[in-house]
User: Which sequence fits this backbone?
């Protein structure tokens, strides 16, 4: 595979976290790498919180990315609040949390600007015996020895190779948002801020944790608190949530600024009546809440000749495990290792696919278990009651967003 | 270390719907909550067993999918009809660590599995007739020790 006179060439489609992991690692392993990102401006605006696991930091070290303490915020414990705001269960569980923007900044800074191309939307992809290529919307075609498709859960490249694989809606959504540390009342701050916190009213689940603030500051007073609130939403309800004021219907997700006023008002009202007052305050004060429909996605294979799927392009697990970014980083690491070990790109990617499909399928399955309670809320009243009997704050606190060994 | 109650039995069926209908119509069971295992099935409840994982479990076996069958059963040969289609019988029990000690002392092979979110740790053994017995422990018991491997390495120095 290594050409004596020239470096092997890689194209990474998708310049979000997964793509940047792969690009950084390939670059430091002697590859000539170029990243094609479709919508860079939209990326920078996303601010969701990210749970870290030890494997994520191992992958960052392998990618040669300088790390210091400012990458995340440490919490020491977990707490579950009752609807009246009293702590019902608390235990020690140290963890580092970060934010999408912070991770993006760290990974993006480690990758040369000249190799990060914006605005290139892939319209077709091809793999032959000698090379792989992508064609962009502007008509240009770009060749490489290997193409890494890190183009997210609605991957164009996956749809090209696996037209029959679809996202499976799980029957519930996650409202997410960030509130400035300084905006919180003393009471809410004291109850929540330095903790990974939960509240589990009937049929609902909300959790929250501190993340970096504006300009990615992790200094005390400048941080933000991130919430994730799971709520049941049947197919028809979801369709309604995804329609803006003008009547335009979105699929899979709606830009936060276009979420209808009445949808937000209903959500705020529910927060007031259902959630612990500290969480209700977080939800109410969040700058621009957004929601994501929860999906499962599994592929039977991740390699197509010289093209490999990576991260959410291949497997989407529900957010309960908090493994999305760690999984993408692990995929990137596995691709680079396989390419170094095998004589041909095709062999390397076949090996990569076998290992990471197993891992991806296990995570998706594990996350299904953790989300089964939310999914049961769409069923009969009897089944909802049963699901309630089986749900305990102990299990939720023990299993949410912790590393899983498969 | 105690068996608290006989909990459920689990049967394999080539026609999940037909089997489930039988238990519903003839015996009055109600299908209910079941974790999202990666094989098809139904949990049937009789009332009062809503927190004990139901009383009859049916595992759907697709005869046209030998791969899926093998994934679930391993290389075990299974009868197609008759009482031999009972996959396992389950007890609710407490005292995980003591049970492990007994299995070691008696030379009994076992397999551990934790079901996420349910608050359930399962141990599978076989009786002398080859009947699979599933022991269901509260998840807090496995939580306390981590895993058999970590428990064994932590207690190795304590052996006389």
Assistant:
């Amino acid at each position: 595979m290594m050409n004596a006179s020239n470096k092997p060439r890689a194209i990474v489609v998708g310049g979000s976290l997964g793509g940047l992991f792969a690009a950084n690692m390939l670059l430091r392993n002697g590859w000539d790498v170029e990243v094609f990102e479709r919508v860079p401006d939209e990326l920078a605006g996303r601010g969701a919180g990210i749970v870290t696991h030890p494997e994520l930091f191992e992958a960052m070290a392998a990618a040669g990315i300088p790390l210091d303490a400012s990458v995340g915020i440490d919490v020491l414990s977990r707490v579950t609040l009752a609807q009246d705001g009293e702590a019902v269960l608390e235990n020690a569980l140290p963890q580092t949390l970060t934010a999408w923007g912070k991770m993006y900044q760290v990974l993006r800074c480690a990758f040369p600007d000249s190799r990060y191309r914006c605005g290139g939307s892939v319209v077709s992809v091809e793999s032959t015996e000698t090379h792989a290529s992508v064609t962009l919307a502007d008509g240009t075609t770009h060749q490489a020895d290997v193409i890494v498709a890190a183009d997210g859960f609605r991957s164009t490249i996956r749809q090209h190779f696996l037209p029959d694989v679809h996202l499976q809606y799980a029957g519930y959504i996650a409202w997410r948002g960030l509130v400035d540390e300084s905006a919180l009342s003393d009471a809410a701050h004291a109850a929540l801020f330095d903790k990974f916190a939960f509240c589990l009213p009937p049929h609902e689940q909300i959790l929250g944790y501190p993340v970096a603030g504006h300009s990615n500051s992790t200094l005390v007073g400048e941080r933000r608190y991130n919430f994730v609130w799971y709520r049941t939403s049947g197919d028809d309800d979801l369709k309604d949530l995804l329609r803006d004021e003008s009547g335009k219907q979105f699929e899979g997700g709606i830009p936060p600024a276009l979420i209808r006023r009445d949808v937000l008002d209903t959500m705020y009202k529910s927060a007031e009546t259902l959630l612990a007052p500290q969480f209700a305050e977080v939800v109410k004060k969040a700058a621009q809440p957004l929601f994501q429909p929860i999906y499962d996605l599994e592929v039977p294979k991740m390699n197509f000749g010289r093209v490999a799927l990576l991260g959410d392009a291949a497997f989407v697990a529900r957010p309960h495990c908090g493994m999305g970014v760690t999984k993408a980083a692990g995929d990137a690491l596995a691709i680079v290792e396989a390419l170094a070990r095998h004589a041909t790109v095709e062999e390397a990617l076949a090996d990569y696919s076998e290992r990471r499909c197993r891992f991806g399928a296990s995570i998706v399955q594990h996350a299904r278990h953790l989300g089964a309670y939310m999914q049961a809320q769409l069923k009969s009243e009897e089944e909802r009651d049963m699901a309630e009997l089986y749900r305990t704050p102990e299990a939720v606190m023990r299993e949410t967003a912790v590393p899983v060994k498969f | 270390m105690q068996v608290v109650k006989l909990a459920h039995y689990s049967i394999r069926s080539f026609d999940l719907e037909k089997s489930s209908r039988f238990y519903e119509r003839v015996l009055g069971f109600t299908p209910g909550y079941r974790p999202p295992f990666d094989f098809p099935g139904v949990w049937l409840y009789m009332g009062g067993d809503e927190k004990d994982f139901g009383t009859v479990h049916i595992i759907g076996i697709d005869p046209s999918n030998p791969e899926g069958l093998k994934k679930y059963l391993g290389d075990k040969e299974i009868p197609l009809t008759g009482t031999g289609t009972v996959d396992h019988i389950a007890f609710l029990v407490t005292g995980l660590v003591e049970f492990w000690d007994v299995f070691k002392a008696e030379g009994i092979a076992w397999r551990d599995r934790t079901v996420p979110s349910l608050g359930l740790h399962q141990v599978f053994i076989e009786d002398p007739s080859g009947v699979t017995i599933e022991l269901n422990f509260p998840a807090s018991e496995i939580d306390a020790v981590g895993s058999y491997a970590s428990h064994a390495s932590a207690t190795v120095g304590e052996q006389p």
About this structure: The longest strand of chain B covers residues 2-13.
